[in-house]
Amino acid sequence: MTASPPPASSQHTTHHEHEQAKDSVTDPRAVQLARIFSLLRLAIVVTVVVVLIWLVGDVLMVIFAATLVAVILHNLAGIVERHTRLPYWLALTAVVVVLIAALTALIWSSGPEISEQAVKLRTALSEQAHSLRDRMGNSSIGRMILDNLPSSLGGNEPSSGGSGFGSLAGSMTGFVSSAFGAAGTLAVILIAGLYFAISPELYVNGMLRLVPHEYRKTSRDLLLTAGRTLWAWTAGQALDMTVVGLLSFIGLWCIGVPLALALGVVAGLANFIPYIGAFVGAVPAVLIALSQGTREGFMVMGLYAAIQFFEGNVMAPLIQRHAVQMPPGLTILSQTIFGTILGVPGLILASPLTAALLATADRATPRLEDDERV
Prior knowledge:
By secondary structure, the protein is an all-alpha fold. It has helices at 8-26, 28-84, 88-137, 140-147, 164-173, 175-198, 200-209, 216-255, 260-270, 276-292, 294-322, 328-342, 344-364.
């Protein structure tokens, strides 16, 4: 028994609706309204994100730092798991035990010396800063610089206090530091990072459940891309910091600069912040060397210039070949933006955060065709 064809009136209605839908899609007014709606939605999302970062930036930085710790522990445990065939939880336990043992051995063997040199370094830097300020106060150019330099940097310009919304934001973003202090915040980051690393799928799956079903697969790919990028950036930066710290210590020791070990540690740790960290790590060594003489000061300047030349032209290309390539201009811009909004934590974590954002944006957006490139 054959099915009867639909009535002619039904066919006419369906055809009419199809033509109306087609006309609404091609209608210039409808297209323009859709674009305006899309722009408004994007503006609202960006505004909400900026306000959240402004209000609870410190909390977000703690969460990101804990995530970074979890990525490091998870990947180290994965390496041990692949090479030893141990269960993941046992491999993670081995990694944590080895890290704690190595840190304990370092503190036991070199801790007193590093601590003593750190105290001497702080005293010497304070003396050099006061001496430099006195010398600048004896010249007209120096006094002009001091008058326009904020008091937080040793100048005469009073620091402006925040009020209104800025004061509210500052009080809210300072919640973590005021509640726990620096040591407590570091402990929270390490403990939270360890728990994230113990069962990362629990937290990732929980985030994915908040995403609409049709976007979950894309969101999963973006989260995995961000995790791989953070690990690649951290591994490359750790190697870079180690090389810079060792070269700085050996060079300063050969020149005869006091506190070479502490200054080498400072140079290596400061290099966690690309570009800006190189300058920050060099300033204490140059000030200490200038206290020994002008010749030593210029030698230390030449040493750090040579180290940064080697790091930028030899180490960085080798690391970026296997890690993350970040444009220098974008790196410095992100450090300025995050440092201005979130202070020192934002400056420290700006580079890994930018690397993760760049990787996810590269994954989420289509590639340019040859005829679309500049």
